[in-house]
Design brief:
9 strands; alpha+beta
């Protein structure tokens, strides 16, 4: 889903609470000025988070949150990436839940593509994925899945959620995904995650 083409994700209707939005870093889909200084961006967002929650950060709170945001941005939205990353936080000091969203040209037949986008038939899953239909007013009929997969370097399972759509006009595939060991956070964020996925739309570049 990394190929850039003439349609991009539109996040205009995404409710920013409780998300920190990390723009793409490809230089094609976001103003380059956003990433002139990722450290400064992280600190600015950290200050806003403390203010928005009406909490006192103390002497080290801003630096702590800024460092967490910077590490997340570098890890999940590396330089050159063209997908969005949304960090879910209930409180400024929470370990964020990263959620990614990407768009690309339609890649094949609808049903097969949706199952591939959502990894509905992932052979690594410890049991068959929970597969459900989902409807978005902006993207139409799609598919969502939940599954647990093992990790090679950890005894803990990953809880994985994915959403997939194939849009007829323009012909594009959209995928939203997250995976985490912190299944409790994933479950707490379930409604916010679904609202986020339903809020995305496609913008055709002139």
């Amino acid at each position: 889903m990394s190929e850039y083409f003439w349609a991009i994700l539109d996040i205009e209707h995404v409710d920013p609470t409780p998300w920190v939005m990390v723009p793409p870093r490809s230089g094609l889909t976001a103003p380059s000025s956003v990433w002139e200084d990722i450290r400064a961006w992280s600190r600015e967002v950290a200050e806003e988070l403390w203010e928005d929650h009406d909490l006192d950060p103390g002497p080290n709170g801003v630096d702590f949150v800024a460092g967490t945001l910077e590490r997340c941005a570098e890890a999940f939205a590396p330089a050159g990436s063209d997908h969005w990353v949304f960090l879910h936080l209930d409180q400024p000091t929470d370990l964020p839940l990263p959620v990614c969203a990407a768009i690309g040209p339609a890649s094949g037949p609808r049903e097969a593509t949706l199952r591939a986008l959502t990894e509905a038939d992932d052979p690594r899953a410890i049991e068959p994925a929970v597969v459900k239909s989902i409807r978005s007013e902006k993207l139409g009929e799609g598919l969502t899945t939940f599954r647990y997969v093992p990790q090679t370097d950890s005894p803990h399972l990953l809880g994985c959620v994915r959403y997939g759509w194939q849009v007829d006009e323009p012909k594009a595939d959209v995928v939203v995904w997250t995976a985490t060991e912190d299944v409790a956070h994933l479950l707490r964020a379930a409604d916010d995650l679904e609202d986020l996925a339903r809020s995305l739309s496609v913008y055709v570049v002139a």
